[in-house]
Structure formats: structure tokens, C-alpha cells
Amino acid sequence: MFIATLIVSLLLALALLSSASGKLTRKPAVIEQITAVGVPADKIPLLGYLEIAGALGLIAGLFWWPIGVAAAIGVILYFLGAVISHLRVKDVKGSAPAAALALVAVAALALRLLTI
After folding, report:
1. How far apart are CA 9 and CA 14, in angstroms?
2. Tally of structural domains, the chain
3. SS3 sequence of 40-53
4. What's the mean pLDDT in 79-97?
5. Which residues have CB under 8 Å from 105's CB, separation 6+?
6. pLDDT tens digits along 60-74
7. Domain that holds residue 77
8. Distance of CA 49 to the CA centre of its chain
């Protein structure tokens, strides 16, 4: 079961780092989508830093489970917030990637809890 936890946690961490990269390098498509849901442009780097923190927490959590559990919960809440933000502005298509990553974070949490 730990191998599944390892794979899911590492893949989610890579997705978070990729997403953070788009925010921190200010890729136009990323900035446009985020500002469309009402996030002020000056707050976008903060979202990237939160994703990096989540990725680091998931990786550290492979060695000390409480950090992994906390990181997975944080990532779930982060992406639930993203889904809500997209749905608030009636951007159902835009909410799909965030919803998918939230589900992967739920899987990471469940697997981490099963391997304690």
C-alpha cells in the first residue's frame, strides 16, 4: 500500500509544482484564467507558494505521516476553494482540473492514512 501512497503523492506533488510554475512565471493563460474568477493579480504568486508548500508537505509526509496528512488536507481545501471560485462565476469547464486534483488529493490522504 505504501507504493501506491508514494506514487500518488509524488504525482500530485509534480502537478502542484507544475501549476505553481505557471503562476510564478506569470504565464498569460494562467493569469487570465485566475483573474477571471476574481483573484487579484498581486495575490497570484501566493497561490503558487501555497502549491509549492503542498508539494513539499506531501513529499515530507512520505517520511513523517502527520505532515503528509496535513499537506493532503491543505491541498484538498485549496482545490475545493478553486472549484468554488470557478463555479461562483459559472465557469464549469474551468472547475474540472481543480476538481480532479482535489480528488487526487483525497486519494493521497486516504492512502496516507491507510499506511500509518
Report:
1. 9
2. 1
3. CHHHHHHHHHHHHH
4. 96
5. 12, 72, 75, 76, 79
6. 999 999 999 999 999
7. 1-114
8. 11
